[in-house]
Prior knowledge:
The chain is α+β, with helices and mostly antiparallel strands. Helices cover about 35% and strands about 25% of the residues. The protein is built from two helices and five strands. The chain has helices at about 5-35, 65-75, and strands at about 40-45, 50-55, 60-65, 80-85, 90-95. A three-stranded antiparallel sheet has the order 1-2-3. The protein has a two-stranded antiparallel ribbon with strand order 4-5. It is elongated and about 60 Å long.
Amino acid sequence: MNQGPTNENFEQIYQNYRQQGEMQAEQDQMQAAASDGKESIVAVRKNDDGDIIAIQTSSGRQLDYISALNEAKDGVLANVDVFHRYGRDILRSEPDGVKENNLDNLPTF
Length: 109
């Protein structure tokens, strides 16, 4: 007698679905940024404490954290927000449910 899919099969199907969605979200963001003429952040540099101290853009520019904040405020950088917390401005990726494109999870340079 056929018992049908197991819980493991359901989990694998769901994980494939999530992965495809994450890949599509990344592609959509890159296309939107390109069509807007904005650069996106593709890599980060961190200090020994794990704090982001610089970013690299899709065009290869490397910016210190303050310059990146200013460009994000001016709308030059795509898919990032600036918010005020702990008495200072903080750069963060736009919340989209994709962990891989969060600034902390980007490749380092």
